[in-house]
Amino acid sequence: MTSITLGTGVLWHGGKAIPGCPEALQKLKELGKKIFYVTNNSSKTRAQVADKCRNMGFPADLENVVCTAHISALYLKNMNFTGKVYMVGNSSMAAALDELGIRYEGIGPDVVAASEASFDSVAKYQTEWKPNPEVRCVLVGFDPHISYVKMIKAATYASNKNNLFLATNEDPFLPTQDSVVIPGTGSIVATVKIPARREPHIMGKPGTAMFDMLHEVHGLQAEKTIMVGDSLKTDIAMGVNCGIKSMLVLTGVDDLRRVEENQNSDDPHCRQVVPDYYIDSFATLGEYI
């Protein structure tokens, strides 16, 4: 069996490991199980995720970290992409593209000057801005500098059906431990796909791109793999989409009430998104090993 595990909500909260989880994961590794950390977070490189895991006591290296910044770059590299990427993203996504020699533009702030903040100041893009013909792909991830100008440019490129349109994930909000709502990458993706009138190809969960890479590079077999996660919409749905068993951990986003709602839903897709197993905490596994 191969275990694909997640981070926030499954193994840690914030910067602190959930008690017992590092020990449980280490026991699995000692039994020869392959462990992969799979995250939709596009703002961290694989090295940064591996460092975070090790600092909390989890065994990790680059080879068993799968993040959407790397998967997006690898997807383009494997298809021999030679154009330029217009990226709504961050420095970690840029580093992933740099590592594989993929050209891009769009990183960093791109805003209308405060003195020109009116409809006329953005309407002028219809005549004064010319799309770069080298851009053949739009890649949208977490971007703290998202702006109306970036929406115009990204939506324009994405509306061209000859261009690729990729998104790291569509998570609507980020997990937090307080009442402040932090919009997630899905909120940013929506500002591009709605005006572009086109759906992106999702690189992260619940899509299959991450497991496809693990199958190709590490030889993972669906029938010998289990997806461990705390979110029905992303983690458990990825298990369903990839044809692998799944386990819901009750230390994060969803609980058994949500599972029951899916089971009784009128939506046939929701009825499919039900875990094969559930457990109170990932740490509990360590008690049975």
Topology, please?
Blueprint: E1 2-5, E2 12-13, E3 16-17, H1 21-30, E4 35-39, H2 46-55, E5 65-67, H3 68-78, E6 84-88, H4 91-99, E7 103-105, H5 119-123, H6 125-128, E8 135-140, H7 148-158, E9 164-167, H8 185-196, E10 201-202, H9 209-218, E11 225-229, H10 232-242, E12 245-249, H11 256-263, H12 268-272, E13 277-279, H13 283-286
Helix pairs in contact: 3-4, 7-8
What does this entry look like structurally?
Substrate binds at residue 205. Belongs to the HAD-like hydrolase superfamily. GO terms for molecular function: metal ion binding; phosphatase activity. The chain is of the alpha/beta class. Helices cover 38% and strands 17% of the residues. The protein folds into two domains: 2-40 and 205-286, HAD superfamily/HAD-like (Rossmann fold, 3-Layer(aba) Sandwich), CATH 3.40.50; 69-202, Rossmann fold, CATH 3.40.50.1000. Strand 9, helix 8 (185-196) and strand 10 form a beta-alpha-beta unit. The longest helix has 12 residues, at 185-196. The chain starts with a strand and ends with a helix. The model has no long low-confidence stretch (mean pLDDT 93).
